């Protein structure tokens, strides 16, 4: 991978016209999706909490690092609850055998940004030398009886605020979609709030159909516990 | 279990008043939920097709017995896609060691009906001597990051027409809810069409909250295949 070109100094109106470098990379951001492991639980816990804050749903947030650790990573990736971590770095990613799971070799893309990103929480979300966790997606298999095929359901997809509107969410969602195709699955599904116009526009641009007629029913809390002694 | 009382012959206005038997069972229907196995695939395939007809969605129906067999029953019950079969009989269920899975011992209830049920498809759905398949529910684990707990998602719940409005759907849904409680899970969720007022009323009576703000996004067919070469 070529080293990024240094930023150009401020230029007067050029005469003769300035010769641009062949590959003008101003502020490269190296971005990677990889499978999460138990080591990522502290980051995942903080990300889920940020999502609860963003959705004004902190009163429903009851996850702890311990409860996440005990309920996640208990099965093979893609067979049950699975998490892709989104990591960023301003330098190329190091050779990283620790994260090289043969079921999903990490995918790296380079984003060329107009401006460098100021991440006020870089230290909190550091996941290695110069690497920072920027988001995650949690998904698991679902099943379509009409297709007689599994698919994936995306429970959460989240990118931290300073990394939004740059294509990183698209990278996370695409990673899940590609994995579904690779496994011969029939569908990828997720939910969106009906007033979240920006998200709906984004998902439609990704090729998704937003289904207007279906409503989700949820049985939880005391209403669920009431079935303890049924039958 | 007491043998059912024979139906009473037509009576003139009684004088002195007729003495009712202590336990007047007119038309008992024995109903059982049990774990499905590969042996049930022919019944399951027919039930899914009936569901497609009911929903006017036969153009989306692509399941075959072979594709169902190869994608279902590949994991422990409750860890992945799981099916409860709903069976009925006019006589008590026989001792049935074949279906006695320790993970879910069959649950039997007796429904006392005003009239016996005429099942025009009893032969098609026969699953053993005098036993008839009346419906099914297919569900699998989902996950709530806020609760840091798994739950169940119900993909399909279906009762054949002649057995509807008798409490059998409630029995199927309750069986899944009870199993969720037993496993310490946090939620049971499923979907309903917004115009299906009867179903919504039924689900609310079961304790479910119908969430009005969420929409399902679906990526399928060519829109999904487009991600094959991404990244």
Q: What's the total helix number of chain A?
A: 5
Examine the secondary-structure arrangement and name the CATH architecture of chain A.
Answer: 3-Layer(aba) Sandwich
Mean pLDDT of chain A: 89
CATH C-level label of chain A:
Alpha Beta
Largest interface: A-B, 78 and 78 residues
Give the biggest beta sheet of chain A. 7 strands, mixed
| Weakly predicted, low-confidence segments of chain A | 1-22
- CATH homologous superfamily label of chain A: Gcn5-related N-acetyltransferase (GNAT)
CATH topology of chain A: Aminopeptidase
Domain N-acetyltransferase (chains A, B): 88-231
Biased composition (Pro residues) (chains A, B): 1-19
Keywords (chains A, B): Acyltransferase, Transferase
GO molecular function, one term (chains A, B): N-acetyltransferase activity
Description:
The structure is a homodimer of 231-residue chains. Chain A is an alpha+beta fold and 231 residues long. The first copy, chain A, has a single domain, classed as Aminopeptidase (3-Layer(aba) Sandwich), CATH 3.40.630. Chain A is built from five helices and nine strands; from the N terminus they run βααβββββαβαββα. In chain A, strands 1, 2, 3, 4, 5, 6 and 7 form a seven-stranded mixed sheet that branches. In chain A, strand 4 (126-128) and strand 5 (131-144) form a beta hairpin. The termini of chain A are far apart. Chains A and B meet through helix 1, helix 2, strand 5, strand 6 and helix 3 of A and helix 1, helix 2, strand 5, strand 6 and helix 3 of B. Strand 8 of chain A pairs antiparallel with strand 9 (214-220) of chain B.
